[in-house]
Amino acid sequence: MQLRNTAKSALRIQGIPIKHLVALFLALLVILAAALWPGTDTNNAITERQTLVVSPIQDTPITPQIRYRTTTPAESTNANNTRNSTITTADSVELTRSEPQMLLESEEPQRLTDTIQPDTTATTEQQAVTEPTELEVKIAIDQGDTLSTIFDQVEIGQTTMYQILSADEQLLALDILRPGNILTFRKHPETLELDEMELYIHPGNQIIYRRVDADNFEYEEVINQGIWEQEIVAGEIYGSFYVSAIRAGLSKAEIHEINKLLGEQIDFNRQIQAGDRFQIVRNSQYVDDEFTGQTSIEGIRLQQRRNSYTAFLFEDGNYYDSNGESLTRAFRRNPHNQNFRVSSNFNPRRLHPVTGRVSPHNGTDFAMPTGTPIVSIGDGVVTRVENHPFAGRYVEIQHGSTYKTRYLHMHRIDVNRGDSIQRGQRIGLSGSTGRVTGPHLHYELHINGRPVNPMTANLPMATSVPQEQLADFNKRVDELVAIMEVAHEEQFAMRRDESQPGT
Ligand SMILES: [Zn+2]
Fold it and tell me: From the CA of 452, how far away is ligand 1's center (Å)?
């Protein structure tokens, strides 16, 4: 059974008499109408995307479709191909979907640049236009593209680019443009100034930067959780665990996480032997049947001749062994070693001092003198070391698949992208780089991709599953082990088939 949110999350509204009204007024009316008449459905209606408030996926009651994929070394190449082709489809889908009047212009054949004619039946803003103008331009990100070169290409000035970067300071989504991302620029029909820029990251995640006034943009993040499909990745060790796991279809990041979770129980370099087996239960995100690239490991079992090592993800976002003992190393609350004053709290409803609009503060600010040592709150891997015009020099660290932290406005950074980091390890010195009123550390904690209050959020504290939740936990373990057992049986069955080719 599949859990589908997609259809429900789209709001549709009736066609309304819009010809006689000015574009701006209508845009407001459309938003109002969408709020008042959800669920009404006509073919020529405008489809509004709804911003979903996303809770951690473990909170969602998932009744996943289970695809059993058991992989032996011999057939593993096929498994990898399947996965790759899914990703390719996901990257290209948005270009061919949902825009009936899209024209393809191939000025540069190797780059996909779409120009959309004003559509007299579609959006209100396009109604106001009488002659065809390139009001909407789509740019598919290529290797080596920067925001600056793309803005040059679409002939939008640097001033506007910095206004958008300013809006992106709390999100920092534009710092990691990757091939497969798509930027859509929508210009005002009369002034031809940029009204809106959309960043398409994957089918489940887009960000819209919308003009508020002459000097400011604000962002809206569109999230579609789609379906999390459960599958099992199983294999037999032949060579190293790493090589065998890659062959079975696990990613480098997933293998790193498995090493981390089981690493205190078993030495992956010395104790792994040929013939050992593993079964990994993994959830993968699909939106409109496209793989988004997001995965979550639900359960791990490594079987040796005498021992079996396991890890199970529980609803609190942490991993435990089959006895309910925590496998996630404890985090510390503060990214520094002294008691510094919180100068600005995490606040998703903060009002922007200039525009008066809601402009979230996605982290906690600590007032501290430049040069204060900053430490990682947990074990992890450095995923970003960047220099942003407003966020300044900053570091991002991924702690397993659930947690991520960011440290902004640093004076100096002592780590590189890809470095493995220990809890409490110094990553650099605080400072006042970027747009600040004084030296401070802006510190963010993200759980499952969403910023949370770092001072109050539940952090892994390396204990066991609470007594009152033990029954729930044991039920979850039983479910995951049952899935692993099926894969385990299939592994044996395949082996019998291979050893008896004639039968
Ligand atoms: Zn801040």
Answer: 13
Confidence at residue 496, expressed as pLDDT on a 0 to 100 scale: 66
pTM of the predicted protein model:
0.71
Contact status, residue 314 vs residue 296, Cβ threshold 8 Å: no
Q: Residues of the chain with pLDDT > 70: what percent?
A: 71
> Cα of 142 to ligand 1 centre, how many Å?
32
Tell how far the Cα of 442 is from the centroid of ligand 1, in angstroms.
4
Taking the centre of ligand 1 as the mean of its atom positions, its distance from the CA of residue 417, in whole angstroms, is: 23
The number of angstroms, rounded, from the C-alpha of 120 to the middle of its chain's C-alpha atoms is 35
Ligand 1 centroid, distance to 361 Cα (angstroms): 6
Residue 426 Cα to ligand 1 middle (Å): 20
- The rounded Å distance from CA 444 to ligand 1 centre is 8
- Helix or strand run (H / E) with residue 320: strand 319-320
| Residue 37 CB-half CA count within 13 A | 14
pLDDT greater than 90 at residue 89: no
Q: State yes or no: pLDDT of 123 exceeds 70.
A: no
Q: State the average pLDDT over residues 267-292.
A: 93
pLDDT by residue (tens digit) across 229-266?
999 999 999 999 999 999 999 999 899 999 999 988 89
CA of 413 to the centre of ligand 1 (A): 18
C-alpha of residue 400 to centroid of ligand 1, in Å: 24
pLDDT in tens, 11-33: 223 333 444 434 444 444 444 44
Calculate how far, in angstroms, residue 108's C-alpha sits from the geometric centre of ligand 1.
41
User: Ligand 1 mean position to 242 CA, how many Å?
Assistant: 39
Per 3-state DSSP, the chain is made up of helix, strand and coil in percentages (nearest 5) of: 25, 30, 45
**Looking at the chain, which residues constitute the CATH 3.10.450.350 domain(s)?**
227-323+466-499
- Domain 227-323+466-499 indexed as CATH 3.10.450.350: yes
- 342-452: CATH, from 2.102.30.10, 3.40.190.120, 2.70.40.10, 2.70.70.10: 2.70.70.10
Domain with CATH 2.70.70.10 in the chain: 342-452
Sign of the Cα pseudo-torsion (173, 175, 181, 182, in order): positive
Q: What is the pLDDT of residue 499?
A: 57
Region for residue 386 given its phi and psi (left: phi exceeds 0; alpha: psi -120 to 50; beta: otherwise): beta
